[in-house]
Amino acid sequence: MAKTRLVSQWKPLSNLEQGICARFAEARQVTGLSQVEWGRKHGFSRDEVHNVELRRVPLKWHLARRLIAAHRVNPRWLAEGFGPTDFSLVLAVTARPNARKNALFSEVYEAEVKPLMDELLSEALANELASVGSMLERGPKAGPARAVLQDSTMRLLDLALQMPDQETFRSAISDLQQVAFKLARVASAQPDQTAAVIAARIEELCSFRERERMARRTAPEEKQQRREGS
């Protein structure tokens, strides 16, 4: 009796799509909700979530959109695997793309979300820099409370971390170092830890981005070595 060969109904996904599915599963698990609970909460069936997380089907935009908007997930991290996992401008990002329901997340990200993120980040960074600069110009006596200034500068740092490439990141860090320098001069008249905290955070971000840059550069080499060793 001849054996019947079983053919899977699922087509193999590309490495890109498999990575996206894995990060979707990771982000969903962080919420503490099961596949059933997360799907029910956001209007999806358990199978829709389950098949993505098993890497049977690529992540669709309408599913990714709910994850990003409801849990502040960074679209760049979800798509590319780099950068912080959270993103402060998610509502603006998810509100504007007008993709069809069954469009792949990876396609919508490249065509609409990624350029929009870069635009929004640059605009937010410029506005925050102008705000901090205005506070510093008014000086420690006429200016707002020190805590307000530090909070605003920390937002600047978080925006800088999300800059899309090394060139824009270095530009943002250069602007922030000028802020730290001005804060140090202000602090000499009214000493506090604001400038020191910000300077330390800048160093931390530079170190993080250097590690990220090295990871991007070595990942293809490691993948090639694994292929050659198999």
Protein architecture, described:
By secondary structure, this protein is mostly helical. The protein folds into two domains: 15-110, 434 Repressor (Amino-terminal Domain) (Orthogonal Bundle); 115-222. The protein is 73% helix and 0% strand. It has ten helices and no strands. The chain has helices at residues 15-30, 35-42, 46-53, 61-71, 75-80, 90-95, 105-142, 146-161, 166-189, 194-229. α9 (166-189) runs antiparallel to α10. The radius of gyration is 22 Å and the shape is elongated. The relative contact order is 0.08. The mean pLDDT is 76.
What does the secondary structure layout of this molecule look like, with pairings?
Elements: H1 15-30, H2 35-42, H3 46-53, H4 61-71, H5 75-80, H6 90-95, H7 105-142, H8 146-161, H9 166-189, H10 194-229
Helix pairs in contact: 2-3, 7-8, 7-9, 8-9, 8-10, 9-10
- Poorly predicted segments: none
Mean pLDDT, nearest integer?
Answer: 76
Q: What is the CA-based Rg, rounded?
A: 22 Å
Q: How is the main sheet built? A: none
The dominant shape is elongated
Name the helicity range.
over 70%
Number of H- or I-type helical stretches: 10
Run of helices and strands: HHHHHHHHHH
Number of strands: 0
Quaternary form: single chain
- Label the structural class: mainly alpha
Question: What is the number of independent domains?
Answer: 2
CA(first)-CA(last) distance: 36 Å
β content, as a range? under 5%
